[in-house]
Amino acid sequence: MIREYERKTLSGIPVLVLTVLVAGAVVASFVAMGRSGGELGWLWLALGLMVLAVLLVLGQFMIEPNQARVLMLFGAYRGSARQPGLRFTNPFYAAREISLRTRNFETGKLKVNDCAGNPVEIGAVVVWRVVDSAEALFNVDDYRDYVHVQSEAALRALATRYAYDPHEEGHISLAGNTAEISAQLQVEVQERLEKAGVEVLETRISHLAYAQEIAAAMLQRQQASAVVAARAKIVEGAVGMVEHALEMLSERGVIELDDERKAAMVSNLLVVLCSDRHTQPVVNTGSLYT
């Protein structure tokens, strides 16, 4: 495993000034050679200064903020330069630029089966940056493609371990615990990208839905669950109201009811309170026993 280490470089400003002076000396050498009638000494001096000027130019390079230059000599890694500005180093070094800025990408809508076997569509946004330039360039073939592929693989693996909706209270689900799922996804993506010199700053679930072939059925299931929950709440409230009504009638002595009449009253009140339609009153002209 190749890891990054910093290569110290010189400031390029003095070298740039020196390059200008050498170029002026080359011109002056040619002028002196012309005045001396073509003396070869001036020619060799001019050629030597030209070679020096070329080496000085080749050794200079620019580094922008949050960028690095990976330096290599005949295929061997010789360190990374990170200090921004105009820099100068060995002119025989080959330099490859790599960005250290924060990047993000959104995975496609992946179709996977959750732990219950239901097909779901899921997508995520991954925010990342390169922290080790040597690992990013030398340990993987294409670190950008590596980040994309491994992020999608981690998202697929994570989605298969949880259900879309919680089947039991307290269980983690994709839809009900988005923050926990996103945090766990960040950990898994980071583990996969460790060898590529990449740091994962944040992951977020950006898309989550049932697949089209079961979306309608799951919608009906959710609607049915909502109806059952609403009915249970209505019945619970209705029972409390009936109990309170019987207690008030008994405390105030409005009417004495035997068990049969209480049962009839409870039945009528529950029908009125729990019905999803307006009830129609029925006038009883007789007694309960006729």
Summarize model confidence as the mean pLDDT.
81
What's the CATH first level of the largest domain?
Alpha Beta
Give the tally of β-strands. 10
- What distance separates the N and C termini? 96 Å
- Major β-sheet, in short? 4 strands, antiparallel
Stretches where pLDDT is under 50 for at least 5 consecutive residues are none
Query: Pairing-aware structural class of the strands and helices?
Result: alpha+beta
Overall body shape: rod-shaped
- Rg, rounded, reads 40 Å
Taken as a percent bin, the fraction of beta residues is 15-25%
How many domain regions? Answer: 3
Q: Bin the helical content.
A: 40-55%
Enumerate how many helices there are, as a single number: 7
Instruction: Write the CATH architecture name of the largest domain.
Output: 2-Layer Sandwich
Give the H and E element order.
EHHEEEEEEEEHHHEHH
* CATH level-four homologous superfamily name of the largest domain: Band 7 domain
What do we call the CATH topology of the largest domain? Tetrahydropterin Synthase, Chain A
Characterise this structure:
- The chain folds into three domains: 87 residues, no CATH class; 108 residues, 2-Layer Sandwich (Tetrahydropterin Synthase, Chain A); 60 residues.
- The strands form three sheets. Strands 7, 8, 9 and 10 form a four-stranded antiparallel β-sheet that branches.
- The protein has 290 residues and is α+β, with helices and mostly antiparallel strands.
- It contains seven helices and ten strands.
- Helix 1 runs antiparallel to helix 2, helix 4 packs across helix 5 and helix 6 packs antiparallel against helix 7.
- The longest helix has 41 residues.
